Amino acid sequence: SRVIEVNELTKRYGGKTAVKDLSFTVRPGHVTGFLGPNGAGKSTTLRLLLGLDAPTGGSVTIGGRPFRDRPRGLRHVGALLDAGDVHGGRRAVAHLYGLARGNRIPRARVDEVLRDVGLADAARRRIGGFSLGMRQRLGIATALLGDPPVLLFDEPLNGLDPEGVLWVRGLFRRLAAEGRTVFVSSHLMSEMENTADQLVVIGRGELIAAESLSDFAARG
Ligand code: ADP
Ligand code: ADP
């Protein structure tokens, strides 16, 4: 299955509680927005979802498996955690081909994904630095590489120009329409409008709401 289940998840860093007793479910076939102000615990939760960090309490499963048992590699879960981590310029494209080879993904798939995110020309030239928007596109390409059923994106709209925002929204809708699970964090409600149909809202590490965007918006 493609369902993400977060169950009484808690994460403390020393004396600081980043995430507290957080429970929610993310279903396939939707774009689910993960909304909360800066410092609310979104990145921490995404890192726990990916098994990049261990929870202090509670559990996370993706497709019914605890993250420790999760199949490794790019084919199960694709993620864009931080475009700042994407290596700059030509190295980034080389990294993408290397990542594909390491995961037994054909080069033609990399070419295809670079075309899909609008970076085919930039990749061919392999020159200069990449803007933040290009790094975002490249990070999204990385997440798409293995054609995974579950996709996690941390602030994917940051640094995109208006055309890029429209493109990413269209991409997320297509991925959801294909029956994938698409989970997208943001600190801006305005970004979630026209992007997500479901919302998980957190503040200070705790759940505030988990419902449709229209129900949340209608609360006033
Ligand atoms: P968001 O992604 O919503 O901005 P974060 O998950 O990055 O929130 O951070 C939640 C809280 O946890 C913040 O107060 C942050 O300072 C703290 N935090 C996150 N990571 C660490 C860490 N590695 N060590 C200490 N505190 C952390
Ligand atoms: P490498 O260590 O081979 O250089 P990275 O750790 O830099 O690969 O991963 C690059 C990107 O691939 C990450 O930003 C993330 O999007 C994705 N990724 C890597 N491993 C996983 C995984 N186990 N599950 C989901 N996504 C992953």
UniProtKB/TrEMBL annotation:
Keywords: ATP-binding, Nucleotide-binding, Transport. Residues 4-220 form the ABC transporter domain. This is ABC transporter ATP-binding protein. The chain holds residues 2 to 221 of 305 of the full protein. It comes from Streptomyces rectiviolaceus. The keyword Transport applies. Belongs to the ABC transporter superfamily. GO terms for molecular function: ATP binding. The keyword Manganese does not apply.
